[in-house]
Amino acid sequence: MAETKPPLGLDPNLGTREFVLEVDAETLEKMRKVAHVQIPLIQESFTIHCDEGEAVGGDNTSPPPLAYFCASIAF
Question: For the chain, which residues make up each domain, given as ranges?
Answer without folding.
Answer: 20-74
